[in-house]
Design brief:
Elements (H helix, E strand, L loop, with lengths): L13 E4 L9 H15 L5 H4 L7 H5 L8 H16 L9 H10 L3 E5 L4 H11 L5 E3 L7 H7 L4 E4 L2 H9 L3 E5 L6 H6 L4 E3 L5 H7 L6
Parallel strand pairs: 1-2, 1-4, 2-3, 4-5, 5-6
Length: 214
């Protein structure tokens, strides 16, 4: 006798995305902001070097150029200068809008979880016309699991091994794109479940993705 059991529908996904070097190419804007900070303070900053290691919180870069007792002051100054200098200089990464659209087309929600100062993260997305369902800033690496769990994200997409660690701590599928400072091999070795060349590959991957069922 033929089975009449209806197929179990695939739940619509909630997908988290990192921001810098995942959805946006923040190198031009951040480079310009570091150069302006250097000029403003009279302190040498190798901006070209700094933009090769984006991902961690701002203080982890500033400690290379300023004494520890000035980090809070310099961080506040950098963030205050950032909107006028960095926003318009920063383009979207290839495939960024299409990746968000693919999540929506699947009936899901797209959220952004980033280490960037949240008001500046929102300015970037608004300027580029990218409108996720939620934006959560000021979270790095394992801290990102807080927001991913809160919003029920099953997938987290990022370019850094810190993003992989955050996804795994949240028990989310770690999808990595090799568009930032970490190579595909580094991302895979850190525990990424999937490594894509860039976000242009994401819609096709998502269309074929079937979550594991309990």
């Amino acid at each position: 006798m033929a089975s009449t059991t209806a197929p179990v529908p695939v739940p619509a996904p909630t997908v988290g995305f990192d921001l810098d070097m995942t959805l946006i190419d923040s190198r031009p804007g951040i480079r310009a902001c570091y150069l302006a900070l250097s000029e403003r303070t009279g302190t040498y900053i190798d901006a070209d070097l700094a933009v090769t290691r984006l991902g961690p919180p701002l203080a982890e870069e500033l400690i290379n150029w300023f004494p520890e007792d000035r980090l809070e002051e310099m961080g506040d100054l950098y963030r205050s200068m950032y909107p006028a200098i960095a926003i318009t200089a920063t383009p979207a990464m290839a495939g960024a809008r299409e990746a968000i659209d693919a999540v929506r087309a699947a009936g899901g929600r797209a959220i952004v979880v980033t280490a960037k100062y949240e008001p500046n993260a929102k300015l970037h997305l608004e300027h580029l016309g990218i409108h996720p369902d939620e934006v959560v800033g000021n979270l790095w690496a394992e801290q990102k699991a807080e927001a991913l769990r809160e919003h029920g994200a099953q997938i987290y997409v990022g370019d850094h091994i810190g993003d992989v660690r955050g996804a795994r701590k949240a028990d989310a599928l770690a999808v990595a794109v090799a568009t930032g400072p970490c190579s595909a091999q580094e991302l895979s070795s850190a525990g990424a479940d999937v490594v894509l060349g860039d976000l242009t590959e994401f819609p096709g991957w998502l269309a074929n993705y079937r979550p594991a069922r309990a």
